[in-house]
Specification:
Length: about 450
């Protein structure tokens, strides 16, 4: 199948590589010339396990372009995967989606009839707006052409992008056209039927006997809402366990045991019940705000989503209050931050909890040192004016520090020689924001340990 995709980010690049490696002829357009140049040179511009290998397989079928000048209007399918970031007021910024839709209308060749798929996460009703934007441009060119649009939300997780794309739980297609449905079913057939053969080194392996993905066709608006509702629900699960964690801490229960205990009930399930200093990322923060605002616009009070966001905010404030409790005034106190990315196995810092914590600590006059195995460059580029010491050798973050905050649960943080490192510290305070560490050896090494809802007294 001949496909054009627009937006070479975490979703666009991964999906383009998947479709190309399954034998489709894919052109990936991104207006970021640097990114396209890197891709042409064989570089992978983001950190995503398995993606480099997948791109090598995909390369013969994958073309990278940075302008509409090279658009092939004989394409059968156009897939939009541009960013839909959050505006200051929590709404979704659809500037890129609108621009792309208008470009499609301007470049469409008379007589061809590609289908336009919206994979970006967009507010309910946007897919129909995309159709209108395209048609408005066509009208200006006096082209009377019916446009097919469909919604195909993406559910991949960063760090597991390739795995999730190959082994999704479901493929959701919002369309009112059987023609579109047939074409997309053909496109997804190797994944739906699990008939592809790709041997890639992925961070996790598909368990045996895992059911095949479910093909789920809905109304366009339902598909759009499924995406937001899924993210809001997952974020709600985490906020729920974080709230219970606060109670657990006060009553002397252990949240990891509580989470496991409730999760064993199959109606609840164990996933997304890891207590921590809050959820972040390029999706949960913007998507929960977006659904809240969509509700507001329609006069629906989304109290659970609002509480989900509020609890998350409190989790971040908890860290600062614990530090103040332990150290008093934070002015000139040296604080080491372990982990900057919003979760392990990604270089993405969008919506990372580290950002707000560091910002607050700088405001309070603390001296900040940070370490992350792969996200330091992104952080430095995004916050060039922040006075932060970027530490290359992880051990050095402990030297003369008054406290360490573990923000991201990178695997290597679990096995550091904390006993030795404690000796280098001014005050031995550790805030384990992800409940990653074994408590007993830390206490033995003289640390004052704070976890999230863990029984450590
Ligand atoms: N990142 C995820 O894990 C994830 C998962 C599911 C869904 N989504 C959704 O998918 C969409 C893309 O997310 P992402 O994380 O891949 O974003 P991203 O920021 O990594 O990538 C977006 C890309 O689009 C390009 N772009 C923006 N405007 C453009 C334009 N007018 N023309 C051409 N290129 C343009 C940017 O240069 C960038 O490379 C968003 O709507 C997001 O909510 C993301
Ligand atoms: O039990 C948990 C699980 C996650 N998190 C945090 O939640 C955030 C999001 O984690 P995750 O869902 O793994 O990352 P994303 O890559 O942002 O993926 C989410 O957002 C994507 C973009 O919409 C969706 O496609 C995915 O299905 C959805 O899981 C991170 O800060 C995690 O630290 C917890 O605190 N506890």
């Amino acid at each position: 199948m001949r496909i054009t995709m627009i937006g070479a980010g975490y979703v666009g690049l991964t999906t383009a590589a998947i479709f190309a490696s399954l034998g489709n002829d894919v052109t990936l357009l991104d207006y970021n010339k640097d990114k396209i140049e890197k891709l042409k040179q064989g570089e992978v511009p983001i950190f995503e396990e398995g993606l480099g290998e997948l791109l090598e397989v995909a390369r013969p079928n994958l073309t990278f372009i940075s302008s509409w000048g090279s658009f092939n209007s004989k394409t059968e399918l156009i897939i939009i995967t541009v960013g839909t970031p959050m505006k200051e007021n929590g709404d979704v910024d659809l500037t890129s989606v609108e621009k792309v839709a208008k470009s499609i209308g301007q470049k469409w060749s008379n007589g061809s009839q590609p289908i336009v798929i919206i994979k970006s996460t967009v507010p309910v009703g946007t897919t129909y707006r995309v159709k209108e934007w395209i048609e408005e441009e066509l009208k200006k060119r006096e082209i009377n052409q019916e446009i097919y649009v469909a919604s195909n939300p993406e559910f991949l997780r960063e760090g597991l992008a390739v795995y999730d794309s190959l082994y999704p739980d479901r493929i959701v297609i919002g369309t009112d056209s059987s023609h579109v449905q047939d074409l997309l079913k053909r496109l997804y057939s190797p994944i739906l039927n699990q008939t592809f053969s790709l041997s890639l080194k992925l961070p996790i392996q598909r368990p045996d006997h895992q059911p095949k993905p479910v093909w789920f066709v809905t109304e366009i608006k339902s598909a759009e809402l499924i995406k937001y509702a899924a993210n809001a629900f997952l974020a709600m699960k985490i906020s729920f366990i974080n709230e219970i964690a606060r109670l657990a801490e006060k009553v002397g229960a252990d949240i990891t045991e509580v989470a496991e205990g409730i999760g064993l009930d199959q109606r609840i399930g164990t996933s997304y019940l890891k207590a921590g200093i809050g959820w972040g990322g390029g999706c949960f923060p913007k998507d929960t705000s977006a659904i809240l605002n969509q509700g507001k616009e329609k006069g629906i009070e989304m109290s659970l989503v609002k509480a989900t966001i509020d609890v998350n905010q409190k989790q971040k404030e908890w860290v600062i209050s614990k530090l103040k409790e332990a150290l008093g005034n934070l002015k000139n106190k040296e604080i080491g931050i372990l982990g900057l990315s919003f979760k392990p196995n990604t270089d993405d810092i969008r919506g990372a909890i580290s950002i707000e914590i560091i910002e607050k600590l700088l405001e309070l006059g603390a001296a900040i040192k940070v370490y992350d195995p792969i996200a330091m460059d992104n952080f430095r580029k995004t916050y060039p004016k922040w006075k932060i010491k970027y530490i290359k050798k992880i051990e050095e973050i402990f030297e003369h520090s008054h406290a360490i905050i573990l923000v991201t649960e990178w695997k290597q943080f679990k096995t550091l020689p904390y006993g030795e490192l404690a000796k280098k510290m001014e005050d031995k305070i550790i805030i384990d924001g992800r409940n990653l560490l074994d408590i007993a050896p830390l206490i033995e090494a003289g640390f004052q340990y704070f976890g999230i809802g863990r029984n450590y007294s």
